[in-house]
Design goal:
- There is one protein chain.
- The chain has 2 domains: 2-60, DNA polymerase, domain 1; 65-333, TIM Barrel.
- It has a 10-stranded mixed beta sheet with strand order 3-4-5-6-9-10-11-12-13-14, with helices on one face. It has a two-stranded parallel ribbon with strand order 1-2. A two-stranded antiparallel sheet has the order 7-8.
- The protein contains 10 helices and 14 strands.
- The model has no long low-confidence stretch (mean pLDDT 95).
- The longest helix is centred in the middle third of the chain and has 16 residues, at 130-145.
- The chain has helices at 9-18, 23-35, 49-58, 130-145, 169-180, 200-207, 224-230, 239-247, 271-280, 306-318; strands spanning 2-3, 59-60, 65-71, 77-82, 88-94, 100-103, 107-109, 124-127, 155-159, 192-196, 214-218, 257-263, 286-292, 323-325.
- With 348 residues, the chain is an alpha/beta fold.
- Bound molecules: S-adenosyl-L-homocysteine (SAH) and iron/sulfur cluster (SF4).
- The site of S-adenosyl-L-homocysteine (SAH) has 16 residues, from strand 10 and strand 12.
Length: 348
Amino acid sequence: MESLLGKTENELVEFAKVIGEAPFRGKQIYQAIYARRAMDIAGMTELSKDLREKLNSIARVTETQIVNAFFSVDGTRRYLLQLGDGREVEAVFMPEERRDTICISCQVGCAVGCGFCMTAQLGVKRSMTAGEIISQVVIVLNEVYGVGVEPPHGTNLVFMGMGEAFLNYNEVMKSIRIMADEKGMGISPKRVTVSTSGIIPRIYDFAREPFRPRLAISLSATTEEQRTRLMPINSKYTLAELMKACREYPLGERERLTFEYVMLDGVNDSDEDARRLVKLLNGIRAKVNLIPHNPAPELPYRASPMERILSFQKILVDKDVPAFIRRPRGQDISAACGQLAARRQANG
Ligand code: SAH
Ligand code: SF4
């Protein structure tokens, strides 16, 4: 079966031609799946009955399906989704007063192997296609607001679910370009954040993209040795090289580079670490998100106590490095940062 989601407007026009239809049918399909978020070919009444039948016999809007949804006391929702080949990924919806955020996956599992992250324990099964990436957003918006209903406030997207976006660069970028189109989903790249564990060659590629989203770097350590222990990718792409790439990264006028730092009790949360972090960020227009570690029974780390996180934050702020403490979301349903492992239960 072909999946329609993930095709650009041109690709759908081509597709219409290939199946013996007029090119404008491709544009109608484009409108239906991206602007109206239609999930069901039979319901696309702007297409003739014959065409709908023909389409139905060869294609689906998407093969992604919801397996289960988990609702947190804080309003966060975690969706366990099954892809066409039976593999499972997760997407998380986080309501916010001013805007909502959807956290999406880009790979089934992850190869990077960070010691504090549940996704790492899955290893990587495969990368997701642009269509599979987009299907998460379409499905979550339809679930939360209803099919085709315009979200009341804008939607932010973060590539902070399962997987490393820069190890699936082309499909991630394709999905972002498709979702940005105002004739379709209209999610501006300004509202999209891509997070990377530091795949340096792709940081340079990303810097050259004409319409690039925001970039977040997962740092979580302040020395080579410490970072290699926590994030083994550091032995290939070293902290020194990573900071050089960050320094050379062309920021927009009011843009800041976001650094994420998972706070692990007694591991990377000392005052000395904070002072080293200030030094590392010297000369970079940066913002730091301190993420209290979200624990799981399988993970060998504990979250830093809040007083520790607060004094770490104070050292940064006193040196004019903006630093924010991330409030954990959906911890009770295993939906928080680093807890995504395609689990079938809410907890455990
Ligand atoms: N693979 C990408 C994006 C997904 S992880 C990356 O690593 O950047 C999103 C963020 O969650 C990263 O900053 C990561 O360091 C953080 N994270 C991973 N495991 C965590 C955990 N158990 N608790 C808190 N944050 C975690
Ligand atoms: Fe992969 Fe990110 Fe988890 Fe590291 S933190 S294992 S890069 S998903």
